[in-house]
């Protein structure tokens, strides 16, 4: 990022030198600078716009769940069947260890996350799931039912 910014800067400095020679005003050069640097600063701002504390396990867990699990465990539209069962707190409460274990190992139908996620991250997902209320039965669902 740093070297990019430096490259872009020296690149535009050259350009600005030419333009200044051609009689360009200082103000327009500032404008040119901000236009040139704008795309470089934009992704950096979008990277972490979460207002919540980064150490909050529920927030972390929700984000990890959306990234890794929601493709199978949340229903995208009313008519889309889900591949996996919906997950919520009643399913997790009191059997946290078994759930952590299951997420790590996976099953025939679900990939294990032992190598993809740290133990602390799996734990954060479990903490997040413990905040999720039981969803209303909305549409066709597949894979519902106890695993063990
Ligand atoms: C490729 C689709 C897929 C992904 C991705 C996936 N799962 Fe699953 N999951 C399933 C399926 C299917 C089942 C049903 C279990 C079975 O039949 O083996 C399941 C079952 C479970 C269960 C057991 C539910 C119960 O009834 O005890 C838990 C907990 C679970 N998943 C958590 C997760 C978590 C957490 C993630 C993300 C880190 C995740 N899953 C990612 C498909 C998936």
Structure commentary:
This protein has helices at 2-21, 26-47, 57-68, 70-73, 89-92, 96-105, 119-129. The longest helix is centred in the N-terminal third of the chain and has 22 residues, at 26-47. α3 crosses α7 and α6 crosses α7 (119-129). Residues 40-48 have low confidence and may be disordered. It is extended, with a radius of gyration of 24 Å. It starts with a helix and ends in a 19-residue tail after the last helix. The chain has 2 domains: 2-47; 57-129, Cytochrome Bc1 Complex, Chain D, domain 2. The chain has 148 residues and is mainly alpha-helical. The structure holds heme C. Heme C binds at residues 68-69, 71-73, 83-85, 87, 91, 99, 102-103, 107-111, 113, 125, 143, 146-147. Residues 68-69, 71-73, 83-85, 87, 91, 99, 102-103, 107-111, 113, 125, 143, 146-147 line the site of heme C.
Any chance you could write out the topology, listing elements then pairs?
Layout: H1 2-21, H2 26-47, H3 57-68, H4 70-73, H5 89-92, H6 96-105, H7 119-129
This protein binds heme C.
CATH superfamily of the largest domain: Cytochrome c-like domain
Fraction of residues in helix: 55-70%
Radius of gyration: 24 Å
Number of helices: 7
Low-confidence stretches: 40-48
CATH top level assignment of the largest domain: Mainly Alpha
Based on the coordinates given, report the CATH architecture of the largest domain.
Orthogonal Bundle
Silhouette? extended
Task: Assess the beta-strand content as a share of residues.
Answer: under 5%
Q: Give me the secondary-structure category.
A: mainly alpha
What is the element string, with H for helices and E for strands? HHHHHHH
Q: For the terminal residues, how far apart are their CA atoms?
A: 48 Å
Bound molecules: heme C
How many strand segments? Answer: 0
Largest sheet: none
Q: Mean pLDDT, rounded to whole units?
A: 76
